[in-house]
Write a structure and sequence with these properties.
conserved putative lor/sdh protein from methanococcus maripaludis s2 fold; elongated; about 400 residues; alpha+beta; six-stranded antiparallel β-barrel; about 30% helix; OB fold (Dihydrolipoamide Acetyltransferase, E2P); 4 domains
């Protein structure tokens, strides 16, 4: 018997502990939330906020890229050696400004040759006109002799033929003069093209050299690029929008554009073009905004944020966005029952509308009073609550200006 005494003691202790655990578990089930016990559930600690009213805006912040309002290449129209480059990267360029010189020695020689050819043709025209005047006088004398019956028919025909030939020679000389003048003008134009000009028509807007393609000493052919020019004022902001926002944008709508390079400075822009089609790959449409840029602070290629107000309305019921909760697939809020002796909550189904920052406008119903903003996960309709002080800011959802439409 003494041999089995330790084993008996151990079994007694195990049975005793099991009985104690079972009794404690039975007490927990009896006093739990599913069965009415002797004690009521403790009030749930919640934070609350007042229901307000006012103006709410459906603001969308779109991301995109800045582009030059116009970009073009300035090319040489004649071939030759680049003698001088008069502009460099980043230099301002005005319309019709000379940006480079091409060696024009051969072009000048061509102009001189054309001038000489024109002089020859003018001399030939002068001689032809002199011959024509002589033929006309001879024709007049022949007419007089014919009237007197002295000149014969054959003699008159010969005089008339010489007159017609002189007239034809004058017309030919005049045509050759016109051809020589045209050739001279062409050579002069080619000579003028040796001075490469940045020519464009964009309401007189100035540009900036974005890239230099040639250096002095390079040999270029006709149509070889010399420099690239971009126009910076105004500049263009390009964003892409989804189907949800596309129908809410319109030509002339205002927007605020910011970039990391310009810090907190916002530039006012206007929607100028809306693409009529969506890209199949992304299901997004291109939107272009015109942004005045008189100081040239915004540059093509910068990442841009475009803040546009899609809708604005006066709302009679506005609550913090954290007041929204989901129950059985419905949007609800918990209102503090101000008339109850012991603070309780009333669960109200709502229809959210426009969201702006940390606020949401409720389309229906109209509410007033205070709404629970923290602790809803522990609440049901009629739950007892204990209102505590609201914690410090920083937990109120997205920053202002980055909202969207409600769920």
């Amino acid at each position: 018997m003494k041999k089995h005494l330790p084993t008996i003691l151990i079994l007694t202790l195990v049975l005793g502990l099991s009985a104690l655990v079972g009794w404690l578990a039975w007490r927990g089930v009896r006093d739990g939330p599913g069965i009415q016990g002797d004690r009521e559930p403790a009030p749930v600690a919640v934070e609350v906020a007042a229901v307000t009213s006012g103006t709410v805006r459906d603001v969308r912040v779109l991301t995109g890229t800045l582009e030059a309002s116009s970009r073009f290449l300035v090319a040489s129209k004649v071939g030759g050696l680049v003698q001088r480059m008069l502009v460099d990267l980043g230099d301002p360029v005005e319309p019709d400004q000379v940006v480079a010189w091409i060696d024009d020695a051969e072009l000048r020689q061509a102009v001189m040759q054309a001038e000489a050819d024109l002089g020859v043709r003018e001399a030939e025209l002068a001689r032809a006109r002199s011959d024509l005047a002589l033929a006309e006088r001879e024709f007049e004398r022949g007419e007089q002799l014919r009237e007197r019956g002295i000149a014969g028919v054959a003699q008159l025909d010969e005089i008339d033929a010489r007159l017609r030939a002189a007239q034809s020679t004058v017309r030919l000389a005049e045509a050759q003069i016109a051809s020589a003048q045209s050739a001279l003008q062409l050579r002069e134009i080619e000579l003028s093209r040796a001075r490469v000009r940045a020519t464009w028509s964009d309401n007189g807007a100035s540009g900036v050299v974005a890239e230099r393609h040639q250096d002095p000493g390079n040999t270029v052919q006709a149509n070889d690029p010399i420099i690239s020019v971009v126009a910076l004022d105004p500049i263009r902001a390009v964003v892409f929008v989804t189907e949800r926002d596309y129908t809410r944008l319109r030509i002339g709508q205002q927007a605020a554009i910011t970039t990391d390079a310009t810090g907190a400075t916002a530039f006012e822009g206007t929607i100028e073009r809306i693409a009529p089609v969506f890209r199949e790959a992304s299901r997004q449409a291109r939107i272009e905004l015109r942004v005045p840029n008189p100081d040239g602070l915004m540059r093509p290629g910068l990442f841009a944020r475009v803040r546009v107000v899609l809708a604005e309305e006066e709302a009679g019921t506005i609550v913090p966005i954290e007041a929204l909760a989901r129950r059985d697939g419905r949007d609800v809020v918990f209102m503090i029952d101000e008339d109850a002796e012991t603070p309780t909550v009333r669960m109200v189904e709502v229809r959210p509308g426009v969201i702006e920052g940390g606020r949401v406008a409720l389309a229906e119903p109209a509410l007033s009073g205070r709404v629970v903003t923290l602790g809803q996960q522990l609440l049901g309709d009629g739950s007892r609550v204990r209102v505590v002080e609201r914690r410090a800011a920083g937990r109120n959802g997205p920053s202002p200006g980055e909202g969207g439409t409600g769920p």
